[in-house]
Amino acid sequence: MKSKMTDKKIEYVIATHAHQDHIAAFVGNKTYGGIFDHYKIDNLIQFSFSATTSELYGDYCEKVETLKANGTHVYDAGTLVNEKNNVFDLGNNVSFKILDQKFYHEASKNENNHSVCTLLTQGNNNYLFTGDLEEDGESSLVDKNPDLPHCQLFKGGHHGSNTANSDKLLNKITPEVVCICSCCGSHEYTDNIENIFPGQGACDRIRKHTDRIYVTGSKFGDNYEPLNGNITFFCENDGEYTVHGSNNDTSLVDTQWFKDNRIHS
Asked: What is the rounded end-to-end Cα distance, in angstroms, of the chain?
């Protein structure tokens, strides 16, 4: 980030929901601090509900109050939608919209469903980010956004989980490229190979639309390694786009991991 944010300012930050893997980098730790400590934040858009009681979440809330005191505009997604103040113009024919979904307005038993959903539009191109939204949330996202468009890019839901990336959403957005932030082969959450991210069911549903699937990381034995690595989606003037991984540009379906661990046609 230091190489990109040379003015030490971030105009917009979106905190999707209160799980550790989505807010820890904002908070940091006592030794290094986090993004909220090292950068001036102009605008923070965050989740409307949380049932989290973790110490980390408490630290997050404290730092958000500090941001407010220092001039950061803090919004919650539900209020933006209710007030019809949910479209942000970034200039150069680029804008983003906070999309409505029912768990901005009612609590869910699943913290993931509180995820803030964002549609970034560049000219005629559309890029969708849904955090860790689960199937119920995805269903409401489609219902509440009947004009949800075809998407050149979809950040795969909930790290490529089988409990997200539903047919209802995918059939609506018909993605051309899907980028997944997860670690192929990690048993952190389950030992069931079909459910390890990216899940068998998620892969099957995504592949109805595209084989251009890219994943950040992998685990072989005890070693964590990049798969595609840092994934860059680049498009200039809403025309042709490229997808590049810092490690390689190989689609998931062409990797040895996929051949060894996923049933595929």
From this structure: 39
For 205-249, what is each residue's pLDDT tens digit? 999 999 999 999 999 888 999 999 999 999 987 689 999 999 999
- In 3D, which of 153, 175, 179, 174 has the Cα closest to residue 96? 153
| Element containing residue 99 per DSSP (H, E) | strand 94-99
Mean pLDDT of 58-80: 98
Confirm if 166 and 140 have CB atoms less than 8 A apart: no
Taking the CA atoms of 190, 140, 112 and 99 in sequence, report the sign of the dihedral they define: positive
The mean predicted confidence, pLDDT, of the chain is 96
Burial (CB < 10 A; 0-12, 13-18, 19+), residue 14, is buried
CA distance 197 to 157: 11
Nearest Cα residue to 1 out of 30, 26, 19, 29: 26
